[in-house]
Amino acid sequence: MPAITLTTLQSLKQKGEKITMLTCYDATFAQACNEAGVEVLLVGDSLGMVLQGHDSTLPVTTAEMAYHTACVKRGNSDALILADLPFMANATLEQTMTNCAMLMQAGAHMVKVEGALWLAESIRLLAERGVPVCAHMGLTPQAVNILGGYKVQGRNENQARQMRADAISLEQAGAAMLLLECVPSELAAEISQAVSIPVIGIGAGNATDGQVLVLHDMLGLSITGRVPKFVKNFMHGQDSIQSALKAYVSEVKATTFPGIEHGFSA
Ligand code: KIV
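That is the input. Now the predicted structure with 3-methyl-2-oxobutanoic acid docked in place:
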């Protein structure tokens, strides 16, 4: 497949073709995901939980994110690499610029930052300096201690109104993509319509412009045994990791994943 760029993702949204994204933390899986046709590899700070065994993403450092981004880059040929800015790496604007530079220099094509409207200034500065940004809204796992757990966000009308308004403001600030995690399906559909940038969902229904899952979750690997409602085990009925990855791509493209049972209501 030709190299995936922001322009490719934008045109997939315009054509109504779903975008496929999976987390990826190393070179071998980067190559496997390329072969399966996954368009975006997310070097997620979920690596703190699935690789390092922590009980949250908070212990992950920018140096660790840069290390895994570089590993993914070595195995990748044509997917777009999106790297997470970890907890507190954007505590100040100066730290944001320095830490995003580390991720881009390690091989990322875009960075993902968790938050809401307060991200607008840093998104504007990053975009001006050539760094495309994906804003991660809804359930933002780095804020688990403020949110009081891994809970669905935007369920009441005030929160929903705020999230819609923030999404539009972040697009205006220069965000190139949005990621909505654990948001009622209807609200995610409205936000996807309201902005012109691609919106990727996880636990956000099937009307977003694309989907992402944590690689280990969709391969049926869980260190805790707790499987979120929005996860589907794509190893079921498959005899190899490669065919599970291909099944994920084809179900996302066909809009058969996620099903209604993987989403949340208001
Ligand atoms: O870190 C991560 O894997 C993520 C996904 C849950 C979207 O941000």
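The mean pLDDT is 97.
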